[in-house]
Each structure stands twice: as C-alpha cells, then as structure tokens.
Design goal:
Length: 348
C-alpha cells in the first residue's frame, strides 16, 4: 500500500532526541513493503511560517498536506499526534481520496483529560483509532465513526539493539535506572525519593531528570541504557489496563530487567518470570534487593522479556497490525495483544 504517515519527525532537533514510537511505526511499515511518505506537521508549519514562528504556519501546513495527498495518492493515512491538522483537513482527504482509509494512533495515557478529548475528536472522522491503553478500558470511545483498538509500545531491533541480559554484573555500572522529565499528573517522585534513601547506600541508582541529576536525551540516553542492569517502569499514574509509556519497550527490548506495578495487569500479556511485578513500595524494594543479589536470576528474567518483545511486540508486527485493522484485512499473525478482540475491534 501507499501510506501517508502524519507525525512529528523532530527534524529541527537534529538528532538530539531518541527514536520515537511514530518513527518505529514508519520503519515497520517499510519492512512490510509499504511505500511510506512522511509528513511532519509541526516541522512543515515552522518551515512555512513567517520568521519561523510555527503557529503562523498552521494554515500553510494544512495546505501542504493536501498537496501531498494529491501528489502521493495514499491508500492509507495514519495520523499520529498532529494537533495542527484539524478533522476538517482529514475529511477533505477523504473527499479527495474516497477509497483511502484513515487511522489515528495515540500513545498518550487516558488519565490526561485533554487526551480523552483528543481521541473522541479524532474518532469523529477516522476509520480506526489505536490507543496505548488496553482494549477493556476503551469502551468510552465506542459509538463514534471509528473502530477502537489497543496498540502496544513496540521494540525496533535497530533501536533496542543492546542485550544487557547477557552482560555480567561487572559490565553494568548502573544497578538501577529511572529517567523522567515530567511531573504533571503524577506523584511518583515521592516514592522514588524514599527508595533512594534505602537503596543508594547499597547500589548505583541513577535518576536522570530528577533530584538534581540532569536529563539524558538521544545518544546520552542510549549510553545510560547500555550501562544499566535494572530499570523502573513507572508510569505517571498506575492502574490503566495494559498501559505503559515507551519506557517499557526501551527497557525490555535492551535486556534490562524491569519492575512494573501489578495493577496494569501485564502478567496477562507477558510470560511468567520475565517482568518483575510489585503491589507496594515495600515489596518493590525487597524484589530489587533480591535481583541485585542474584545476577544469574536477573539475566534469566531480562532475557525472557527481551526475547518476547523482539519476537512478539516488534515494529514489523505492530505496523502490519495497524494496517490490517484499519483496512479490515484479516490478521496475518496471532498478535499477542489482540487475542481478546475481533477484527473489527470489538471484544470477544
């Protein structure tokens, strides 16, 4: 198929940020032999605006998008996080290309109210919407034009290219890592502060972006991951079914043992003895100490997680699932995250 992917490509950051889930989607589409044309709404708005003032270039960016559609003639349009493109423009694309399917992919959490509004808005015009929260919590979006699906955070072999599960303790100077630069809708740093008091004396616990440690981006972030044994997969809030940030794939795909709250029920998706679950702070600290003192066990569990990610939740399967679900093409693979749904997105 000819796929037009509308998503922020961070062109003006010149390599200082890490590959995003949207870029992984593009890579996966190409690996599935689709012809992909990217359109970065925010970058185009900046390039087309007077004096480079992005907000002044929104109208022109929408015009350029329609020009791209006319020239490229896509079979599928995937709109990611592209708030500069209103539904009216997507509706115009449908008018121009009546046979073109339209999908919206959204990787943000539902506990942010504005994101729920954004999803309901896109559901008015899209054929399908894909959300990083599990399907059981997406009934609020039913009844609109769009079919509703869950999508995971995938790994991409060229990005999650480390395998710390085969490295011994001596080669990994960071015992435990947590990276964050967001404090909205969250109290997780209160818990991490208490954990540091107990764990700092016995291990190297790095909290980039918090407690005076500067954040790491791009290549610096990759270097930090490359040196880490274990990581905290903390969301800003816990309890949303099968929801986790891209951090989950970044840790697991690189063979870094991760600790995840049990309330998100990833035990229903991942194999046993792969991810370490906890219910409360005391249990978490006990489990961190347990794996810190048993390197063979750490390697075994981390290897199982890494293998599952790279085999079952990779960018190639992820991209093909989105293409198939949007176009109502029968699934070509037994997607582990979609075993509870029918092709049309309804729960079995």
């Amino acid at each position: 198929m000819r796929v037009l992917h509308i998503a922020y490509q961070q062109l003006k950051r010149y390599g200082h940020t890490r590959v995003s889930w949207a870029q992984k989607l593009t890579y996966g589409l190409i690996k599935n032999d689709h012809l992909v044309q990217g359109f970065s709404d925010r970058d185009v708005a900046s390039f087309e605006a007077p004096l480079g003032i992005r907000d002044l270039g929104v109208k022109k960016a929408n015009k350029r998008l329609l020009e791209t559609v006319e020239s490229f003639e896509p079979d599928l349009v995937i709109a990611g996080h592209c708030d500069m493109i209103p539904n009216e423009t997507l509706a115009e694309i449908r008018r121009m290309m009546p046979g073109c399917a339209i999908a919206h992919c959204n990787n943000d959490p539902l506990f942010v109210p504005s994101n729920v509004d954004r999803l309901k808005y896109r559901a008015e015009v899209a054929d399908a919407i894909f959300v990083s929260t599990g399907r059981r919590e997406l009934t609020q979006f039913e009844g609109s034009r769009a079919r509703v699906y869950h999508m995971p955070n995938p790994v991409e072999p060229s990005v999650e290219c480390f395998n710390n599960s085969v490295k011994p303790d001596a080669e990994l100077p960071i015992d435990l890592i947590f990276c964050s630069n967001s404090q909205n809708f969250t109290k997780r740093l209160e818990m991490i502060s208490r954990m540091k008091e107990q764990l700092d004396p016995i291990m190297q616990f790095k909290t980039f972006g918090s407690f005076g440690e500067p954040p790491v981006w791009g290549r610096d972030y990759d270097r930090a991951l490359e040196q880490s044994k274990m990581g905290l997969n903390f969301n800003r809030q816990e309890g949303d079914y099968w929801y986790a940030s891209a951090r989950m794939a970044q840790l697991g795909g690189n063979g870094i043992l991760q600790f995840t709250h049990s309330a998100n029920r990833f035990d229903e998706l991942f194999p046993a003895e792969s991810i370490v679950y906890f219910d409360d702070e005391a249990t978490l600290i006990d489990r961190i100490r347990e794996f810190h003192g048993d390197d063979a066990k750490r390697q075994d569990w981390a290897a199982r997680t890494r293998d599952f990610f790279h085999t079952e939740i990779n960018s190639t399967l992820y991209a093909q699932y989105i293409a198939e679900a949007t176009t109502l093409t029968p699934f070509s693979h037994d997607y582990v995250w979609a075993r509870d749904i029918n092709l049309d997105g309804t729960l079995k």
